[in-house]
Amino acid sequence: MENGNSVFSRFEVKKYILKKNLKKDLPSSIVVFLVALPLCLGIALASGAPLFAGIITGVIGGIIVSSISGSQLSVSGPAAGLTAIVLGAISQLGTYETFLLAVVIAGVIQLILGILKGGMIGNYFPSSVIEGMLAAIGLTLILKQFPHALGIHSDFFGDESFFQGDHENTFSAITAAMSHFGLAAIVISGLSIAVLVLWPKFKKLSTVPAPLVVVALGVGLAIAFKGTNYALDGAQMVAIPVVNGFSEFIGLFTTPDFSQISNGKVWMVAGTIAIVASLETLLSLEAIDKIDPIKRVSPTNRELIAQGAGNIVSGLVGGLPMTSVIVRSSANVNAGGRTKMSAVFHGCWLLLSLLFIPGLINMIPLACLAAILLVTGYKLTRIALFKHMYHKGWDQFIPFVVTIIAVLLTDLLKGVAIGMLLSIFFLLRTNMRNPFFYRIKEEGDKKNLRITLAEEVSFLNKAAIQVVLTELPKETNVTIDGTNSRYIDPDVLETIFNYKHNAYTKGIIVDLVNIKDHYSVPKLNNKIIEEINN
């Protein structure tokens, strides 16, 4: 009886938790849906793919990838960072059907990477670089969405690259927008930002998500401006494809051309997509874990498997390659999402909107959606983050700032790569300064010097140890103590043994204490290995 009661109580607890999370996940999913919709369309347009491809990719990313993924807050879909690759690949391969085959193969490669534990690379991104990437994304959202908030639509909604397809760049686009703004868009975006900031402060009203109020307000104002000199044109509105019936919906799907399986270009494109999409996903995953209020850690290998499955399905039905996307995921966090059900529901809303209410969706102004992203960007790049990184020291603050600048002036992957290189420089610098401990003991006219090696001595310590040994004065007794060392890199061992062999030429006597000829890499216990693999 007690056992039955405990089972019942556990069931009740799970039911309560699910119900409690749904109160946050459902409203959050609507916000993510509203943000994702124009992004999916804009990225498809910029990629030279059918608009339907962008929507169906978002649907698959929401429903399939989120269901398999171990991340609770990550949202997947078509990524702006892949637009140039996709556009070039479609042109290079000749037909969209051949490109879809490359997407399927890319998904298979990601599956294999996940099974081979390739996701572990995500654990090696420095915190300063990830924080810098988040701040850069926030600034990018502010800079890129500002023209849309003013009513300028020359660049596709959701572009993140510095150099735009309209021959402008991030800064010149803002200058142009200042002289060609639309009154209706400014009124809509301005009031939308005010609602987003003030609405949550009223507890009785905050049960209704502020972004939903913003969309309703935007639709109402767009209707009010109709028939005036300030009316919004079609390019300033969401433009979802209108599907007349289920048969027409089925006709939108496209299948890959498997006859091109032996085409070498297909495999080159597939490999490129798999690598770039995997890196963007791992970066996004690490960044979202940083801003998760509950501080959960997402399993990276499982995420690669989920992304691989998503890209296989997407390629089979005519979609675009996808990644975990920071913008949508950040919107999910800021809207109060708690579990993966928010991302799953957002995929359902994308599908239902395409089938049943395309006309209503097309009444939403881009200006109010730009306002949502502007507020999201501000939260990602808050002043407190800069102060926090500054107080952590220059070795953290400089890579943080350089990553921000590099991402703004190039793109996500190039910017992060530059930040990583700078972080590695500071890592090497730190290891050069603190590879071991030593003390000098005077005995008469002779100097006795003891070098006590650290617990882990990697190849990064080799240069510093060489410098110290080279600069030791003549006629010195040197003891190199490896008692505390669990591991000494073979290159360091070779340096130490070579020095002992040749030191007599300077009258230096070298004594090695507890230093083995060979060290094995310390093994992790089974529990830690299991956690990493998952």
From TrEMBL:
Top-level taxonomic group: Bacteria
Keyword list, A-Z: Membrane, Transmembrane, Transmembrane helix
Topology within the bilayer: Multi-pass membrane protein
One GO BP: transmembrane transport
Keyword field contains Membrane: yes
Keyword Transmembrane helix: yes
Location within or outside the cell: Membrane
Membrane-traversing stretches: 26-45, 51-68, 75-93, 99-116, 128-150, 170-198, 205-225, 237-254, 266-285, 305-327, 348-377, 397-428
GO cellular component: membrane
Domain SLC26A/SulP transporter as annotated: residue spans: 22-391
Alphabetical list of PANTHER family matching this protein: SULFATE TRANSPORTER
Name of the protein this chain belongs to: SulP family sulfate permease
